[in-house]
User: Fold this.
Amino acid sequence: MKTALILLAFYFSVSNGLMDPIDAKLTEIPTFKTIETEYGETFDCINITQQPAFRHPRLKNHKIQMTPSSIPDSIDEKSTNSCSEVKISKIDCPPGTVPIRRNSGREKTGFTEMFQHNISAIIEGTRVHMAKYYKDGNGYGTKASVTVYEPKVGGKYSGAWLLVAGEGTRSGFIVGWDVSPNEYGDYHAHFGSDWGDLASKTGCKNLKCPGFVQVASDIALGSRLSPVSTYNGKQHQITLHVFKDPKTGNWWLAYGENKKAVGYWPKSLFTEMDKVSQIAWVGLVVVAGDELSYPMGSGHFPSEGLGRSAFFQILI
Assistant:
């Protein structure tokens, strides 16, 4: 209960703007190239050393780690199902630059919402619904392939996430996909992440505040995913990897079966990530006001089987 109440306080600190939003400050950073994708998204290519992450006070003298020192052997396991990989928005920033999506929305951090179900709280007129498979105890990362759908939502969002939480669940991050019109301005599935650290009252979705260090020039947080799965039709999935670098202690995010390094959360961002207390694979729906709950995944139960129910595979 104590942890849940602290997380609740963190939620309100985020919603009341105590974070350091970077949207308005991006105009101060020189743009080397602007890319508009086939889906109408706009990405600015900025110098990797001038990205928003380095506005964080804990990262002022941070040295960028361009690649992981190693990747866990278990991550080499391949998906065995018949699903096709989802295509992510095509981006081609020049060497030495990274893509930043324009016009981020104002959706509240999902990391905190992951834990609100513990006290069945109704926060500012929202309700949280979750399906979670989890593993307690110390860990160094996880991998999963997850089918991508586009559930019909109203004022909030529906998505699927991999979650890594530090000791006491006061620090951590999530990666996955969600449909969030408040965040992206559409009703399509997008690749994204979220992080939070309760002690320092920092954290946000994607790159909306300083923290996550982007290193990839061709994959961006917030990118649209297409094509998506359809009920009783062709299934499409994304494969995600998160793991702790054994040398630096940074937490890496890699995308796809080829384990493309997207970027990392520096060790110094977190106060309680030396030991991981929980790794989880989560379906999350946040509903606004008196709306009926939105679908989670395909909106159908696992008993209906492959092609009809969304799923996670390779839970390591």
The two ends are 29 Å apart (CA to CA). Confidence is low (pLDDT under 50) at residues 1-20, 105-109, 113-123. The longest helix spans residues 2-15.
